[in-house]
Amino acid sequence: MGGRTELLVPRPRIRPGAAVTQVPQAAIELAKRFEGFHRVARADPSRAQPYICPAGYWTIGYGHLCEPTHPPITETEAEVYLARDLQSALAATLRYCPALATEPEGRLAAIVDFTFNLGAGRLQTSTLRLRVNQRDWVAAGQELRRWVYGGGRVLPGLLTRREAEASLMFCDS
């Protein structure tokens, strides 16, 4: 058969009753993968400049919202912004989806990335929130796949991102 053999490593569960305070590594990886560290090579190849994201928002680094006049930042500074932004997304995710506190980290990571990408307000008012709190992971995956619009149009990057998040809904360990 030839193919690659992969070692399946169980994803850790969060202990019931334990406070979740650390952003799952998978959420960091998702955010970095889909946001990227945007820089303008001609201006200063080692620094990120503010840019308008596909949804029409001024952004810098790894998807940090900013003013258009924000000064350029290094990748290290972008990682500090990302850590703060993801910590806020984690807090909001657990506030609106307390069911995730006892689920595998992959599920938490998926919804933290969703919240980081679209904001806590979108999670708070979504059917996705309802499905997560019902622990209906199939329906939650379907709901994630609906959030692919930016600036009034389907964005290919969001299609890919939501598929990556949805795939984490089906982890069992």
What does this entry look like structurally?
The protein is mainly alpha-helical and 173 residues long. It is 46% helix and 6% strand. The chain has helices spanning 25-35, 75-96, 105-118, 120-124, 127-133, 137-144, 156-167; strands spanning 51-52, 58-60, 64-65, 149-150, 153-154. The strands form 2 sheets. Strands 1-2-3 form a 3-stranded antiparallel β-sheet. The radius of gyration is 17 Å and the shape is globular. Residues 1-18 have low confidence and may be disordered.
Would you report the number of β strands?
Answer: 5
Q: Strand fraction band?
A: 5-15%
Distance between the termini: 28 Å
Contiguous uncertain segments of 5+ residues = 1-18
Order of helices and strands: HEEEHHHHHEEH
SS-derived structural category: mainly alpha
Number of helices: 7
Rough shape? globular
**Which strand order do you get reading across the main beta sheet?**
1-2-3
What's the multimeric state? Answer: single chain
Radius of gyration: 17 Å
Biggest sheet descriptor:
3 strands, antiparallel
Helix share bin:
40-55%
Return the average pLDDT rounded to an integer. 87
List keywords for this structure.
7 helices, three-stranded antiparallel beta sheet, two-stranded antiparallel sheet, 46% helix, 5 strands, 173 residues, mainly alpha, single chain
Summarize the structure.
This protein is mainly α and 173 residues long. 46% of the residues lie in helices and 6% in strands.
